[in-house]
Amino acid sequence: MAAIDLTTLAAVKAWCKVATSNDDALLSSLITSASQYIETYCDREFVSQSFTEVRNGKGTRAMSVAHYPITAVESVMIGSLIIPPAPVVGSPNWPGAGYVFNDTSIKLHGYMFWAGIANVQLEYTAGYTTIPADLAQCCNELVGLRYRQRDHIGLSGAVGVDGQHIVYDDAALSPAQAVLLAQYKKQVPV
């Protein structure tokens, strides 16, 4: 399983009703390919990983990040000043100065991302530790489609044994998959 894979070989085999291991290498390759396609289509990465961003400060108290959802912040540095985490609500030091974060941004209390060129460094972890079920299923469907299409690559149709015309759908995504992936497309301006 590649680091970016949005589903598992077992899930794809169950979806495609594949009982043997004859095509495991092919299916694994298709999983990685479909996962990469989804990440490119959505313009973001989904699997949890660490990121470091060097950004321009704009004189604001909040800064959106390029990758989300944020699950942890390792450090926030402005110039040579290291910003501590803000005290937890209800702790003896609350309210106090420091940073807090939500899914898409880091906010400062008592500090500011002062204006400057490449003066802000953010180190954080973002992405899903467990891929959302609908996203994993979309990947299963893409893999299944590519797996079944391998026997008629480049064909738009065929004539069956009994004279019936068979039309192959060569769309990259079904309308339902496009709607699903639209909700995962990168929306945060950086």
Automatic annotation (TrEMBL):
It holds the Pfam family Phage_connect_1. InterPro entries: Phage_gp6-like_head-tail (IPR021146), Phage_HK97_gp6-like (IPR006450). It comes from the Bacteria. This is Phage gp6-like head-tail connector protein. It comes from Burkholderia reimsis.
